[in-house]
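Why do we bother with holo predictions? Because pocket geometry can differ from the apo form. Keep that in mind while you read this record for flavin mononucleotide.
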Amino acid sequence: MKQHAILLADYLYDLRRFARHSAFGKDPEREARHLQARLMIAAHGIEKGLSFARFEPRRGLGKLRNALAHMRRHRALGLPEDDAAYLMARDAIVHYRRKHAEQGVDIADLFEGEEHLFEMEGEAASSIRTLERGSLTDAEREALRKGMLSRASIREFGDEPMTAEQVRAVVTDALSTPSVCNRQGFRAHYTLDRAVIDAALAHQNGNSGFGARVPGLLVVTCTQTIFRTPAERNQAFVDGGLFSMSLMLALTAHELGGCPLNWSASHRQDMALRGAVSIPEDEAIIMMIAFGPLPDVALAAGSRRYDLDTYLSELTRRERG
Ligand SMILES: Cc1cc2nc3c(=O)[nH]c(=O)nc-3n(C[C@H](O)[C@H](O)[C@H](O)COP(=O)(O)O)c2cc1C
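The structure, written out:
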């Protein structure tokens, strides 16, 4: 019974945090932090439409109108126009208009009063990336595979000093992580400071035997402000989990070792960590990653995997009735 009460208390804690910090039930017209996510979602919708090989004129009008409305609100609130979501929306709209012009479709009516968006047209970045098959050589693809397969959880580190620049390079690479509607809620909080590492690790169950020698620590989080519906209640953990994996691969690419550290934490632990180190209130904590220089020879647990068939099966339709 006691265990059930703990489960309920932990769920209620998560529920309260989601209700307080997510955009669910909030007015995006009033809260800038929620507006940015709406703008990104609308801009992403336009970009996505532009990335299909088949062009359908006036496709995605709802998204375009949403983007324009959110941009007006963005300006009215005096938010910076060099914000990534704002620029992405502007560039997508510029691209959308240009594509229509190329096809001889007049959509000027959509932009009445918004002509100022096209004054900087020359500066607009492309809303589309082109990825060519064959752009990675066989050797590069093999190196990618080898890099991925060589990642292991490293719990012993070399002792040369690390710099904030190294951490910035790792996190920059990990920004290639995909996220729902490109909302990019994931965040990484790092420290190379012994006292801060100890303060954080004191609340984590899983670093005994090596935590005291960890030279660097990342706390991976995901802001809840970008989620709007009850169905998105667990999305922070999906996007944050993907970001964590990218961080570990990026650490490998930068010749650093890393070990994920679980944050399967009770609400009391979660509150205690927040009391000990600077994690913004609106962010859900996903996990920590201990990291540091690779020693010349690192020992890692074998971590044997099961047979492939344990993980992989063909999805089939259920026969009804
Ligand atoms: C979300 C997550 C949490 C983890 N937490 C811990 C932890 O608290 N302590 C630890 O020593 N290892 C932790 N690990 C590392 C796993 O033990 C390790 O990934 C697993 O044994 C597979 O080994 P490999 O990472 O070397 O392939 C964690 C891994 C993940 C993915």
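Residues 139-293 form a domain with the NADH Oxidase fold (CATH 3.40.109.10).
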